[in-house]
Amino acid sequence: MLFKVHARLLGCVLELAAFLKSQDGKATGLCIRPTFLGPCAVVLFLINSASMIVVRSMQGTADYFSNVAVAAPVLLVIFTCLGSLSSEAFRDFFRKLASMQEQLPHFRLQDAACHCCDIHHFENGQRVPCDREVVNECIGSWFGSPREFEGSVHSMVLPAMETQLGYYLFPYHIFLGCSIPVLWAHFDGMVYAAIDQDWAALITRLLYVAVRWLGELPIFFAMACPVMWKLRHRRARRFADLGVNVLCMWLPLSVYYGMYLGGEYLRSTWGLRGHILLLVMLLAATAFLWRFWTCWLFRSGISRSRQTASSKDMPEL
């Protein structure tokens, strides 16, 4: 029941009722994961792979983008051409989540559609039994009444959705898996350093990759998420929609480039200690942003939807 159509199908509602009944009033086994999370992860992985092919083809085996004048246009082109594809996928993902956000606080059993009612219980000249009556009777025997079942959905499913999706619209460990091409792309440099027994170069390479993989890219994503969430609505014209995709990448790009410049300064000034300091700072920033910043609008939107639903349920005086 993650997307709008599912909550309006009587069969899916029956499955949800059976699951909640099996939990015996507890939501400990309830795990909410949007089905579109998988395609988004695939798109992100492919884009990271393509980006690393472009970047590593412009770098030597043991070199980085030490020239900031060269790095700036390269990053701009990558985030414009490839990042906009990711922006398109995630904006669609957020549109589906927003639909779920609106539907769940207003969930009503009577709103679920079934085929027999749509055809007015007649098919090929014969009367068709009503599935809704059977489902209502079944749910009534499980929960006491349809109203009690709706209350269980609001009290069990909605809080679980807030907890699991509010902070983890795209889980950090999944993002790291999608970004693993960043690690793969530098295996050659690590192998060369190990063969030459240049342990300082190997440690430097490992720290460089850790900064990119564990810190800079997750921070960029955490900054881009609220932008994509805010601009998730599709524009009437295709070119305008493409422009929004590019804008979603350009707005947080300055933050990413700032992290790059700061990292280059620390590496050139403090050497290995600069690498370590940069990694620690970025990991701390990543932990904060991923936990408290990413898609806070989603959680506040759920709260507003719940308040609206509660106000509609109040009897008029």
How would you characterize the overall build of this protein?
It is a single chain. The protein contains 14 helices and 2 strands. α2 (37-57) runs antiparallel to α4 (83-103) and α12 packs antiparallel against α13 (272-293). The chain is an all-alpha fold and 317 residues long. A two-stranded antiparallel sheet has the order 1-2. A hairpin with a 2-residue loop joins β1 (122-123) and β2. It has one domain (6-310). Residues 1-5 and 309-317 have low confidence and may be disordered. Helix content is 73%, strand content 1%. The chain crosses the membrane at residues 36-58, 64-85, 165-187, 207-227, 239-257, 277-298.
Strand segment tally = 2
Largest sheet: 2 strands, antiparallel
Mean pLDDT: 79
Strand order of the largest sheet: 1-2
**Could you say which structural class the secondary elements and strand pairing correspond to?**
mainly alpha
Task: Tell me the span between the first and last alpha carbons.
Answer: 34 Å
Gyration radius (Cα, Å) is 25 Å
- Give the total of domains: 1
Instruction: Please trace the helix and strand order, writing H or E for each element.
Output: HHHHHEEHHHHHHHHH
Proportion of β residues? under 5%
Contiguous runs where pLDDT drops below 50 for at least 5 residues:
1-5, 309-317
What best-fitting shape do the alpha-carbon axes yield?
A: elongated
Tally of helical segments:
14
Helix share bin:
over 70%
